[in-house]
């Protein structure tokens, strides 16, 4: 299961905003290297497919579908899974063109994660963050991709708003 989750989050989080600037690790030479590190071909066609799948998944998770389900369905149109019996049980092998294999694998990983952890795949609650998380907390209340970064920022903002509403720090001089 961890492999599915790792692949899914790697794709979802591959376009972070860094110091206010949108970035995309699925562009150019960096994108080719990233796709290859995930077991892909690194071709321009594969990167284009991965960007479309990422956009569709992000829209679904944020509940902004706009045709995203159709994009994911199209990704799986040509996919066939063939069973192979091994001493360790049944293994399933994707039969799909090489440039489509990684995108199809991400869609299958998404399905696996939302089935295994229903309601736990979500966008970071920091409205300035573009990252996603799978909530593994016992009560299912994790809100931030990183407590150290987004969690602290959001708590600091909330504290600042409360302090401003209360007229400043207790005991502060006017």
The DSSP helix count reads 6
Radius of gyration: 20 Å
Oligomer: single chain
**CATH superfamily annotation of the domain at 2-118:** Jann2411-like domain
Shape: globular
- The CATH architecture term of the domain at 2-118 is Orthogonal Bundle
**Helix coverage percent:** 40-55%
* Record field, number of beta strands: 6
Largest beta-sheet details: 2 strands, antiparallel
What is the third-level CATH name, the topology of the domain at 2-118?
Answer: Jann2411-like fold
Rounded mean pLDDT is 88
Q: Which structural category do the helix and sheet elements fall into?
A: alpha+beta
Topology diagram in text:
Layout: H1 2-12, E1 17-18, E2 21-22, H2 28-37, H3 44-61, H4 68-75, E3 80-86, E4 89-95, H5 98-116, E5 121-123, E6 132-134, H6 147-165
Antiparallel strand pairs: 1-2, 3-4, 5-6
Helix pairs in contact: 1-5, 3-4, 3-5
